[in-house]
């Protein structure tokens, strides 16, 4: 039982003599310290069976079987009886002289003995070797059953984890619970690509060839709240950097279009293509027209030129000319 549950023997050394000395002189390491998943009751049963004094061990397979059955119902129970060795105890003979002188004492004793001795006891007495073999087999089967029960509790089987990304919350929960797993919503987030109420992602991630998980494990999912909406700010007349910040604070993107203006000074917003205070989806782009400044040109000098030539040189400008008659 110790080796089956821990993967090693209670005492190990380089030579058989060293192992024998350890059996006699050292206490074994408790199996629960080697494998913390072992139930407390099973640990106590094994330690009692490893007592160095045979009087402190289980005195029969039936006695051990009682505790093993209890451990299946109460794995963490403290019901295993710990006996203490009494060095002063001595075997004492009971005085039977007063009974031997009583009439029919021996006859009555034999009759009671014969009545109490059932067929099972009679079989054991007549087939001691076979009884020991059968008892060992039964003990092994019981131990194996207990070990398998413990392993089923501490090491559940693996199941296929379903892929629930893209499914509705209700569909995902149904599929996960059908696979004998636990469903948990870890968070809800905005997502422009996933419809509201549907699964954005799951943890553990689903992989086509590696999707086995322990039965009873928790699968956490992120549920979409749909595409987030926001209000477009009014940025007309604002300085360019201030306008960009206002747009980004509204969870939008700013696209700059530069153009000249006759009235708006450089780096100030002339106009915006999405109306202020209108509703938009987070992540949308707002185009804003930003002034590069009032365009200036050089004026041609026409002093001393004829009227015709002056008009030709200044035809692009509205300039009043004062010409001599």
Structure description:
This protein has helices spanning 2-6, 16-25, 31-34, 40-49, 61-73, 97-100, 105-116, 119-126, 128-154, 169-178, 240-249, 307-313; strands spanning 158-160, 182-189, 199-203, 212-214, 218-224, 229-231, 253-259, 269-272, 279-281, 285-291. With 325 residues, the protein is α/β, with parallel strands linked by helices. It has 3 domains: 2-84 and 95-154, Transferase(Phosphotransferase), domain 1, CATH 1.10.510; 158-224, Trypsin Inhibitor V, Chain A; 229-291, Trypsin Inhibitor V, Chain A. It has a 3-stranded mixed β-sheet with strand order 2-5-3. Strands 7-10-8 form a 3-stranded mixed β-sheet, covered by helices on one side. It has a two-stranded antiparallel ribbon with strand order 1-4.
